[in-house]
Amino acid sequence: MSNQQNRRDFIVKPLQVAAATGLLGTVGSALAAETSAAVIKPVYRSLGRTGISLPIVNMGVMNADVPGLIRRAYEIGMRHFDTAAGYQSGRNEEMVGRMIKEMGVRDRVIISTKAHLKPQELTFSPKAASMFRTIFEGSLKRLQMEQVDILYNHIIDSVEMARATGPIEALTALKKEGKTRFIGLSTHRGGLIIDEAIKLGVYDVVLVTINYTLANDRALLESIDRAAKAGMGVIAMKTQAGGLAKPDRKMPKNLPPESQTALLKWVLRHPSITTAIPGFTTYQQLEQDFSVASNLDYTEAEKSFLADKAFVAEAQFCRQCGQCRPDCPNQVDIPTLMRTHMYAVQYRNRELATNTLADMERGTGLDVCRDCTSCQASCRGTVDIASKIAGLKQLALA
């Protein structure tokens, strides 16, 4: 798309939405009417017991570095913006805060952020609670806000991490103080962690990885239903299994455009899921993702894509089950390495990949793999573990 087209879209398309919602005067409405493009009226769903109602498609800001995307997302109808303290070393929160303040819409949007402690820091001591609070206070400053709507305990991928009292103490105290309206956890291992979150009874929201490659994971789908029944809001992430790019750069072609809407619709056709937060990084991707928000019926092209079972194998999406770890004589944290590879290759977010590696406890990450010449780990699914680890070595991330 040319720069001239991008500029025209940036000016005209918000006018279309503004005219439809009564935000423009007669002249503006006439100008918008000339474009003749349809305005999407999104389906809304309730976020568990929070009382919040959200469009079924919103914005995961993690990979975005174009401020105008936030403005456009709001103008076409998105109302939830998700970020984290660690995204782009805090710059992502700064961008979100700056744009929301500039637009003057803080009272009309739902803002979530996340604080993450390394596994070795997730202790049961008061120090962990203090560390968690310090991270979040930095988030408030960067966001230029006194309160967020949802604060997550981020990357909780074991029962022990979910139970760690330090973060829970900080979260419940911050909620009581009014610095966050609701609290939640984010996880890549939903089938295991969601049930633990339900037992703990302190979380209002869960942010969970779910996509079509996990369609046969009954434990995950059933845990999501149980969470919704218990009154927890369920928000979906990684809905498109890494996006348009294939997980291996050697593969001859990327996925067709209809793959993205098909994958997103598949997730949102589960009524227990309130909304999805795809991580688009361009205006075209934004509009493509939001196009499903008013109608989840599959097109013929989407049906054809989902019927092609080769996609699941080719996607090589790591379901983070951890069954491969015992294969490794050094007990390397292979699931985190696979997630790191996705960040580096499919997300093309080298900084996030580097930070993810840095968070790993020494002796469990790529530092061990560097001297290994024969990977013994085998995926119970379709992931080529050895190839991805070799790819990470070549990228020299750490």
The ordered string of helix (H) and strand (E) elements is: HHEEEHEHEHEHHEHEHEHEHHHHHHH
Q: Please tell me how large the radius of gyration is.
A: 21 Å
Q: Kindly, what is the distance between the CA atoms of the first and last residues, rounded to a whole number of angstroms?
A: 35 Å
* Strands, total number: 10
Tally of helical runs: 17
How helix-rich are the residues, as a percent range? 40-55%
Shape: globular
For the largest sheet, list the strands in their spatial order: 3-4-5-6-7-8-9-10
Describe this structure in words.
By secondary structure, this protein is an alpha/beta fold. Helices cover 45% and strands 11% of the residues. The model is unreliable at 1-37 (pLDDT under 50).
What are its keywords?
398 residues, alpha/beta, eight-stranded parallel β-sheet, two-stranded antiparallel ribbon, 45% helix, disordered N terminus
Record the SSE blueprint:
Elements: H1 3-20, H2 26-33, E1 44-46, E2 53-55, E3 59-60, H3 67-76, E4 80-82, H4 91-103, E5 110-115, H5 126-143, E6 148-153, H6 159-163, H7 165-176, E7 180-187, H8 190-200, E8 205-209, H9 218-229, E9 233-237, H10 258-268, E10 275-276, H11 283-290, H12 300-307, H13 310-315, H14 334-346, H15 350-359, H16 366-369, H17 385-395
Parallel strand pairs: 3-4, 4-5, 5-6, 6-7, 7-8, 8-9, 9-10
Antiparallel strand pairs: 1-2
Helix pairs in contact: 1-2, 1-3, 3-4, 3-11, 4-5, 5-7, 8-9, 10-12, 14-15, 14-17
